[in-house]
Amino acid sequence: MRKISLIAMSLLSLIILFSCEKDETKAVLSDTPGEPGLNVPSTELVLQRANATQVLVFSGAAADFGFQAAVSYTLEAIKSGNSFDSPSIIATAAVDTFALTVADLNAKLLDLGIAEYSATQVEMRVKATLTSTVPAAYSAVKVVTATLYGLPRLVLSTTPEQGILSPAGDGNYGGMVKLEAGVSFTLTDLETGKTYGGEAGVLAENGTPIAVETAGWYNLTASTVDMTYAPNPYFIGLVGSATPNQWNAPDQKMDYNPADGTWNITIDLVAGDIKFRLNDDWAWNLGGTTDNLTHNGANIPVTAGNYTISLTITNATVGTETGTFTITAN
Q1: Tell me: domain 44-147, CATH 2.60.40, correct?
Q2: Which pLDDT score, from 0 to 100, does residue 187 have?
């Protein structure tokens, strides 16, 4: 019996000792957790494609919730003037330091809707999270001025400013531009600072400004690799018995909206038929119904009136072109 009592007392002592140790290490959540910090690489962030692989470090002090715990950190950003209610998530980490390449940061900040090649103020902060039941802690907001790069582009010296892009970044550019007859323009690479002109399809650095004879929209291509350029007319127009020139050229030219990729015109029509065609030529033409325009499709009947017509081209390949359109009486 004496041995059993000794054993029982020993077990009781261990339980008391273990309970005391647990009490000594009990975590206590602070009512006023310490804010995380944020240090930015610079308050003037000029991001350039040539430095795309360079690593930028955003760091700061760790958040203090009153005890050691696993805290997750998020680097957030908004365009100045907006709210942090729905910030863009730039990076997440298990520590209070974030390392991003210039390319990654550029892509994240573009998601804020910042214009390319234009200095824009951005607000950044760090969010420290313990658990979903504990309010997050935030750093003070830092304001930086960021200049971002987009796809490589050549900017025309037109008013308003226009540009053509190189989606592959290979020195071959193209895009829709609106040109005035006899008004010359040059092309400038915003990243290299080089300016190009040209004559007879040959591009030249600091060359003669380029001009076209007919006003309208052009699919302009240029290559700084083989030093060529081509302003290809791209005039979408209405033709048909309901139009002022009936089935004869010139067609009633439509205007292009780069924002949504539509071609638009407001015009008086008489009772008759209409179709759409490119550059006053039947090689590319669209007819049919509002939701199904096809190459060589049927004439589109209209009644007399003033209309606003909007055309969306879904396939521009000559001979297989397709599209849709809306027609609204005014």
Answers
A1: yes
A2: 98
